[in-house]
Amino acid sequence: MKIVFNEYIRSLVLPWQESRGTDDDVVLDSRIRLARNMKNRAFPERASAEDKAVVCEAARACIPGLNELGKGQYEALSVNDMSDENRDLAAARRIITPTLAKKGEGKLLFLRQDAAASLAVNETDHFVINTIVSGSNVRQAAAEAFAVDNVLEGQPELAFHEDFGYLTSMPAMTGTGLFIGVSLHLPGLIAAKKLRRIMQGITKFGFGFSGVYSGRSTHVGNVFRVVNQMTLGISEEDLLDRAETVVGHIIEEERECRRALREEKSDLFFDRLYRSYGVLTQARLMEQEEALNLLSDFRLAVTSGLIDADLQTYAAMVTAVDSAYVSLRRFNDEDPEEKERARLLRSLIKKYVRREP
Predict the structure, then answer these.
(1) Which of 50, 195, 241, 351 is the most buried (most CB within 10 A)?
(2) Is 40:167 a contact under the CB 8 Å cutoff?
(3) What does the pLDDT read at residue 143?
(4) Domain presence at residue 120
């Protein structure tokens, strides 16, 4: 199945991104991460070669069970066997983490053929389950993650403490070992200068914000991830309930801010979207950060009905502007990265936009 991986790692849109999701005018995706470890084995950072080999053997024994879940076949991949280009691109597309992307003994990835579920081996923890769905649906993502977890529970004896729960390499993950991440596009809240208030408000629910494209709470691309900051002393069900409450509130606030912009500041609103579209279609040089900010306006124009295009077009262009992808597509190494990025954007707009603003 390596041909499948090599094909879609270089495609602009991954299989799971081809379908629409709930509330996808605001929410890009919902992700679940479950951390598990084998009993009486050192965490990967300090594990011996023997420990890592035992973990790999236990993971491989899970493949038949994973394939029987009925969601698609899993491909077994050695991170060390990936080309540098594919490894960088997989990390850029968040199929693997930067930690797993670093070459090291015993690092494996079991990836479902739609790229919406995976089992990372010897990453920060022995086993890290990742699932993702389009739009706002943490329940579905969690259900798929727990299904993989059930297969895993049937193989090795996992490190579990009656008082603390699942033991993990990071104390913040100890307990349920459950990490919830929901990515949201929030240009309305940014324009209305209400994001800081929202950020402060969700902390009482045990959640926080991080920038998706910058790794910090900055405004690059106006895309942020809402994440839980605690896993100890709270059940999986309560965490999911809180996530749905927090995300639902943010969606309502963002939609209200967008409505106010369109109705109360319409000249500024439309001028900004038209200007951004003009730059995307005419620029000959484009930095990655500038491109992401312009694509934020492009996505807002699509969801507002000003541009007739699928939301997958936005996903494709976000992939296309990443340095890891641009480096694969440059026909002439002497051309700057900024030139190829601008060319890719013009080409994609011409191909996928059905009606311009």
Answers:
(1) 195
(2) no
(3) 98
(4) yes
Check whether 136 has a pLDDT greater than 90. Answer: yes
Clarify whether residues 157 and 269 are in a common domain. Answer: no
- For residue 85, being part of any structural domain is answered with yes
Q: What is the mean pLDDT of residues 14-38?
A: 96
The last residue of one of the domains, among 135, 155, 175, is: 175
Give yes or no for residue 184 having a pLDDT over 80. Answer: yes
Cα distances (angstroms) measured from residue 198 to each of 192, 201, 266, 315, 327: 12, 5, 24, 26, 37
pLDDT tens digits for range 192-203: 999 999 999 999
The tens digit of pLDDT for each residue in 292-323 reads 999 999 999 999 999 999 999 999 999 999 99
Is 323 a known ligand-binding residue?
no
Nearest-angstrom CA–CA distance, 313 and 349: 8
pLDDT, residue 21, reads 96
Query: Is residue 21 part of an annotated ligand binding site?
Result: no
Q: Is 70 annotated as a binding residue?
A: no
Across the beta sheet with 178-185, the strand order is: 74-78, 108-112, 117-121, 127-134, 27-36, 178-185, 223-228, 207-211
Residue 278, marked binder: no
Q: Is 322 annotated as a binding residue?
A: no
For residues 30 and 68, give the distance between their C-alpha atoms in angstroms, rounded to a whole number: 24
Q: Which residues are registered as beta bridge partners of 30?
A: 133, 182
Give the span between the Cα atoms of 107 and 120, in whole angstroms. 8
Residue 181 annotated as binding site: yes
Mean pLDDT of all residues belonging to the chain:
93
183 is in an annotated binding site: yes
Strands annotated E in 100-256: 108-112, 117-121, 127-134, 160-161, 165-166, 178-185, 207-211, 223-228
Q: Largest Cα–Cα distance in the chain?
A: 65
Is residue 1 scored above 70 in pLDDT?
Answer: no
Reported as a single tens digit per residue, the pLDDT across 329-356 is 776 677 899 999 999 999 999 999 998 8
- The range of the structural domain enclosing residue 55 comes to 1-22+30-175
**9 among annotated binding-site residues:** no
Is 214 assigned a ligand-binding role in the annotation? Answer: yes
